[in-house]
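[Automated response] Your request has been received and processed.

Submitted sequence:
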Amino acid sequence: MNKDLKRNLMYQYLMLLVIAATAGHQGWRTLFNNFAVDDVGINGFQVGVIQSVREIPGFLALFVVYLLLVIKEHRLSTIAVLFVGIGVALTGFFPSFWGLIFTTLLMSVGFHYFETTNKSLTLQYFSLNQSPIVFAKQKSWTAMANIGMGALIFIGAQFISVQTSFVFIGSAVFCVGIIAFFLNPVEKDIPLQNKGMVLRKKYWLFYVLNFLSGARRQVFVVFAVFMMVEKYHYTVKDIAILFVINNIITYFISPYIAKGINRLGERKMLSMEYFSLIFVFLGYAWIDNAWIVAALYIIDHIFFGFSMGINTYFQKTGDSKDIAPSMAVGFTINHISAVVIPVLGGLLWMIDKQIPFIAGSFVSIISLGFVQLMKTKKQLIKE
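Generated structure:
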């Protein structure tokens, strides 16, 4: 199966773009908190506002279905990656609260629209057993790219400014996008996708799980790292090392997550994730030790990979012609909570830093309950 995948043009195309987009985003994430705190001097509430703005394009991912009326989906993926590169490259030139909002929005439009089309194309072009493997391969190789990114930032921090780092990273991503723009990986026998917005009652569980996943993700992405910088005074090098460790683990563990989904089914894998996260978030809230918090962040990152099960479950239960519009709708629903939570969490953070993490544990409990409504692997086979 692996040899067939490697020869697949869409596999090669998506892998190239995934590496570029996620490496650029990872570089931005690694540098952002320290740039925001040390160079710009923003507070917890302002971080929450910026992170909410970052999620607005995800909330507007629904417009992908209308862009697809005039732009081919694989081309839209490439254009999105170009936006990631431009947004990252410009970040260091706008060292102010409003400047960060502008460049964050630009980068985020590209990243979120690429994420939407990548999920859609992966589910369209690969079989039920292949798609978890493809998602896992994407995570593994982007992990390696992110490790390289972390190493470059770690070394570069001694010689170049944060502004220059943003320029180098963004320019590299932009160049990859230009190369991909001249490639054509399309296959003609892929089912035509329904045009426009698709909302169906039978997909309600997919929508709910996406909403809850967005809420869980924001606590992880926004407040866990910000806590490390503000409370425990992690430096750029410290954050870079932590990201490198996370990505080394991701590289090796992602194939096992895919095997787990194929063998055990999405319900069991997602149940393990949400049950474990209840205690991870409570650990963030109550454990006052920089080393243990870092360990919790690594554990949190491992379980983050399990979320691919939400999309592979849709592939097994949904109409193949609904994949593209449904991925856009699911991504939008995922970001309803993502737009609200950073601002609300930022306000709660100012009251008590424990509150966002306690809320995260409640979200995990609710998610665990809804996951039990998924059909088991045996039920899917019978159908």
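Summary generated for your ticket: The chain has a mean pLDDT of 85. The chain has 16 helices and no strands.
If you did not submit this request, please reply to this message.
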